[in-house]
Amino acid sequence: MLFIKQLLSNTGLLDDKKKSEYSIACISTSRPIYLAFDQKSDYPIYVVRKIDGQPALKSHNVHTQLYKLAGALVPQPIGLYMYSGEEYDVQHGVRGLPWFQLKSRVRSEDERTRLEKRIWETLKNFQAAISRAETSEARDIKPHEELQNAYAGYQMTGETPGPRLDKVVKKAIRELSQEPDSPAVPQHGDFCLNNLIIDTDDITVIDFEDFGITGMPMYDHFTLALSLPSSPADPVNAANISANYTIVTSAQTLGISKDVIHWHFLHHLLLRLGPWSTGEKRKPYRTWLKQVLDCFLSEQGK
Questions:
Q1: pTM check: above 0.90
Q2: Same-domain pairing of 164 and 217
Q3: What is the mean pLDDT of each run of 10 residues along the chain (302 residues)?
């Protein structure tokens, strides 16, 4: 990983004479993430990702725009740099830990409750920051049409809906069509514990490859709710997440009737079970989501 040091040195971010004072770690995800540390910090001073295709380039461009809107809620981008014919995205590191390193330190119910409250507040602040932007793309959406589109995407993956799902979707579309249009709320697309860096005072949002997957309100709320430590892991209880107190109060704040929150959750499930979760990386999560959907349908049949 010496090439990361050379890349940062070429850009002037590292002193060439002091390269030996820095260390590089690599996190293996869908694409490698390189973390550059100096001898004084317990968090990376730089984060480097290879631009290996359009999704990665889109993520960089979205991140740059989001930083202008949300400031310290997201890492500060530095820029794109070339090295040996390859392009890399470089950003400043942030204080804090990812959830997989932090979860063993959350030992009491009180600590968990306080942390989850902070995370919900982060989602609220993140969406408020990006919603304040005045763009020509600002629009209203029709919730029933968003559900129709999510259902179509679900079927495009080769899934056979079956009469039970088809009946429930038609009922949901009918009821949502009676609801007023809703302002589109840009969604992070994967606002879960794994995409947060958590520090004592701040929480930073990362990973923007799925940003804008939908403008349907509550999509990020359901993603977060299903990822929290307090979230039920069993599909039966997870299927009832729309009754969660924070979900209900958030929906009402957004002007969503309590009577149709569960249809927003159905939209969430179908969109997650569309092209987003195809592929080997998300296969276990997709299997679990299908179990949640099955339990959700059973609940609707009662």
A1: yes
A2: yes
A3: 91 86 84 90 93 92 95 97 96 94 93 96 95 65 97 95 96 97 92 96 95 96 96 94 96 95 98 96 95 96 78
Which burial class, exposed, middle or buried, applies to 72 when counting CB atoms under 10 A from its CB (0-12, 13-18, 19+)?
Answer: exposed
Q: Are residues 170 and 222 in the same domain?
A: yes
**How many whole angstroms separate alpha carbon 301 and alpha carbon 167?**
10
Domain containing residue 72: CATH number: 3.30.200
Q: Which amino acid is at 152?
A: A
User: Which tokens hold the place of 16?
Assistant: 């060439």
Distance, CA of 61 to CA of 21 (rounded, Å):
31
Phi and psi at residue 139, to the nearest 5°: -155, 165
Identify whether residues 116 and 246 lie together within a single domain. yes
Indicate the residue type of 248. Answer: V
Of 53, 76, 94, the last residue of a domain is 94
Among 118, 81, 142, which residue's Cα sits nearest to residue 196?
118
Q: Cα separation of 48 and 60, whole Å? A: 11
Nearest to 98 by CA among 195, 221, 231, 201: 195
Of 170, 167, 182, which Cα lies nearest the Cα of 219?
Answer: 182
By CB atoms closer than 10 A (0-12, 13-18, 19+), residue 7 is: buried
Give the closest residue to 92 by CA, choosing from 119, 74, 69.
74
246 and 195 part of one domain: yes
